[in-house]
Each structure stands twice: as structure tokens, then as C-alpha cells.
Design a protein that fits this description.
With 312 residues, the chain is of the alpha/beta class. The chain has two domains: 3-115, Rossmann fold; 128-207 and 245-306. The chain has eleven helices and eleven strands. The strands form four sheets. It has a four-stranded parallel beta sheet. The longest helix is centred in the middle third of the chain and has 20 residues, at 168-187. The chain is globular.
Length: 312
């Protein structure tokens, strides 16, 4: 077949060119693999800012995008890696052998594993939640890829003006940090929960997208845990920048953030009014009512804290 007619790699394959073997991975330095969700690529970028970086990293798909055809590439790279930096991923995640312990089992003898936490912090965005349902595990609501408990309540009982008790937003933030710390103690070699709140409004763009200051501290601690005495630097661009949640007055006041509220969403660089997202999501809940029930069940404790007595 003429090379001019050979099938060209698609954009995704090209984007992860080293992972898929389109581009060579240099062998002059130890290879580090960073395994996890979308936070993993942000951490990898931070690690690569180390001056005279003493290792190589490879941009690879997040675990929730890996497919069975990717296993051969993951196996090949893991067999060469000297360090695996991984979030806790359960065995057979999405029916694939890509759990942290399973990938660790592919490493050469003597390789190191450093487990770091899945970041989730709702202090800045107390009403924002993630909801999954087995009928469509990857589904996200219309408008923005996050649920809002106030919109869920509006879809459930028509409540649009539920009162939040004094102190509830602060209590929710403290509970969120406590839960992150609990998961760190259980699953991780590196913690970050103790520094999140010191970064105020810069701590996160969404409940699961940490801001650059948090990522920088995380990268510093990961390097230390991996035995590298080096300091990463800010990459000069905002990472995990695709979605910025409105920062509301309740959170600004409760957490003493000292910044003005931010009333609108920023999604893909475009400003979108919060009222428009609410309208789209209410319509989406009419078409997908199972997600209302799933949200009420999964986040019952948070609902009871923020809106006591609202769910009956």
C-alpha cells in the first residue's frame, strides 16, 4: 500500500504519541509513569518543570479513558518504569487490569510506587457534587459537567430558595477536608489535605480540579516521596482550566476568602451565566430522573447538613 494512503493516527493517538509508540521515549533518564484521572496529567506537567529534571515522563490517557487496546502500551511502558506515581485505582477498574496494584505488578524489580490522593474539595463550592448512575456511568448533566444540590432539590420538590443554616458552609468545608485526609491515611503515601485551605480561593476551580498552588505543593511532596530533592515551579499557565465554577458569596464569607464573589461559570474559556446552567440542568433532570434519585441518595449527608429537613 502506498504510504500516501496509509491510515494516519487520529488526534487522540497523536496527542498521546509517546504512549502509543508514535514517538520514541528517550532512555537517557529513568522513566516515571503518572497514573490517575485528569489530575494526573496536571501533576505530570508540574513535575516536568523541575530544573534539569532527572527523569522522563510520558503523557498518557487518564484511567477513565483507557481501553483494552491500550493495555499493550501500558504494559510496555510500565515494564521500563523506575517509578510509578499513582492515585488509588481499584483493581479491574472499568473491567480492565489497570488498578494501581495491578500496574505496580508490571514494574521491574526495584521500581518504586508512590500513591497520591484523588483531590476532591467542596469547601469553595459547597453545592457542587458528582453523581454516577449504573445506567450511564459516564453521563454528566447538560451545561456543566457537575451537579448542583440546589438544582437537584428544585427538580425533586420544586425548592429553589432553601435556607442554608449559619455555619453550614464552613462545616461542609471542614468535613470535606476531613474526608480527604481520611482517604489519604487509608490509601496514600503523600498527603495534601493539610495545605488546601491555606490557598483560599486559588485552591480549586471545581470540586475535583485543584488550582496551580495546590498542584505545586503536591508535586513537591511527590518528588520528596520518590527520593528526588528538587523543587518544581509554576508552569506559567493555569492547569485543569477547562471549567471554573461560580464562587458564591456564602463561601467567600464563611471561609473568609477576602476576594469578590464570581457569579458566572467559565467553560472552555466562555462565560456562562449560572441561571443558564440551572435552566439546562432542570430540563436534563426531567429527561434523566434517575440522577435526581442518585444524587439524593449519594449525597444525603451533605444535603442534611446544608438543607436540613429539605428532603423527605
Amino acid at each position: 500500500m502506498s504510504t500516501s494512503h496509509a491510515r494516519q493516527p487520529d488526534g487522540r493517538t497523536r496527542h498521546y504519541g509517546e504512549f502509543y509508540g508514535l514517538d520514541p521515549v528517550p532512555t537517557d533518564l529513568p522513566l516515571w509513569l503518572v497514573l490517575g484521572n485528569c489530575q494526573a496529567e496536571a501533576l505530570r506537567v508540574m513535575l516536568d518543570t523541575v530544573p534539569d529534571v532527572p527523569f522522563r515522563t510520558v503523557r498518557m490517557p487518564p484511567v477513565h479513558e483507557l481501553e483494552s487496546a491500550d493495555l499493550v502500551h501500558l504494559t510496555e511502558l510500565a515494564g521500563r518504569a523506575s517509578v510509578l506515581l499513582a492515585q488509588p485505582v481499584r483493581d479491574d477498574y472499568r473491567d480492565l487490569p489497570i488498578g494501581t496494584s495491578q500496574v505496580a505488578g508490571l514494574l521491574p524489580d526495584g521500581a518504586r510506587v508512590v500513591r497520591w490522593p484523588v483531590f476532591r474539595y467542596s469547601g469553595l463550592y459547597p453545592f457542587q457534587v458528582i453523581v454516577r448512575h449504573p445506567s450511564d456511568p459516564s453521563a454528566t448533566p447538560a451545561g456543566a459537567p457537575y451537579h448542583d444540590l440546589r438544582t437537584v432539590l428544585a427538580a425533586h420538590v420544586g425548592m429553589t430558595d432553601a435556607e442554608v443554616p449559619p455555619g453550614a458552609v464552613l462545616a461542609n468545608a471542614e468535613a470535606s477536608i476531613s474526608e480527604l485526609a481520611r482517604r489519604e491515611r487509608r490509601d496514600c503515601d503523600v498527603a495534601i489535605s493539610d495545605v488546601v485551605t491555606r490557598h483560599g480561593a486559588e485552591a480549586a476551580h471545581t470540586i475535583n480540579h485543584p488550582g496551580n498552588p495546590v498542584l505545586l505543593e503536591l508535586a513537591t511532596r511527590v518528588l520528596g516521596a520518590a527520593g528526588v530533592d528538587a523543587a518544581p515551579t509554576d508552569p506559567g499557565r493555569v492547569l485543569l482550566d477547562s471549567v471554573h465554577t461560580p464562587l458564591e458569596a456564602d463561601a467567600v464569607e464563611a471561609l473568609s476568602l477576602g476576594v469578590p464573589p464570581r457569579p458566572d461559570w467559565t467553560i472552555g474559556g466562555e462565560t456562562v451565566a449560572a441561571e443558564e446552567i440551572e435552566r439546562q440542568q432542570l430540563q436534563w433532570y426531567e429527561e434523566h430522573p434517575v440522577f435526581v434519585d442518585a444524587a439524593l441518595t449519594r449525597h444525603a449527608d451533605t444535603l442534611d447538613l446544608l438543607f436540613p429537613g429539605a428532603v423527605r
